[in-house]
Amino acid sequence: MAEIITAPPSGRPALVLNADYRPLSYYPLSLWPWQEVVKAVFLDRVDIIAEYDYVVRSPSTEFRLPSVIALRDFVRQDRPPAFTRFNVFLRDGFECAYCGSGEHLTFDHVVPRSKGGRTSWENIVAACSPCNLRKGNKLLHQTDMHLVKRPFRPNNYQLQDTGRKFPPNHLHETWMDYLYWDVELEG
Questions:
Q1: d(Cα 47, Cα 44) in Å, to the nearest integer?
Q2: Cis-peptide into 28, omega within 30 deg
């Protein structure tokens, strides 16, 4: 369960929202370090939505560090997500596609490469090490194993929806109006 904090998180990052005021990413949460935020503010690429109670100064100016910013230009989210190990794990909810375990995850070809299987969204699943070893170089019908989750090519919206199930440990209170997780105020 995430904890909502009132003190600035370490490094004072800002939550980055798209021009429609939705986070660019839930997992990982779209955060920029304060240095990038200051640069984007001065280049007029973002609007400041919320601020920390912390002032930064230069010889010619001073202002409070932003805690939430929104991009001025909309970033399209409908491009296909990159095929990466992380995105496969995210698509599969960080659980083994065979037994549901979240421990010791690996990458598994449902149809092994030696049997003509390709490295693609439709043939790769997250698998725990014991299941991956047990399946080995066999086709599923040659084992007593079954897919709990069928592999598919996700879109960015599906990955973001899954990512919302994994909130970070700490969320700043100024971010909460823009995030959609079930969290409790602790402290």
A1: 8
A2: yes
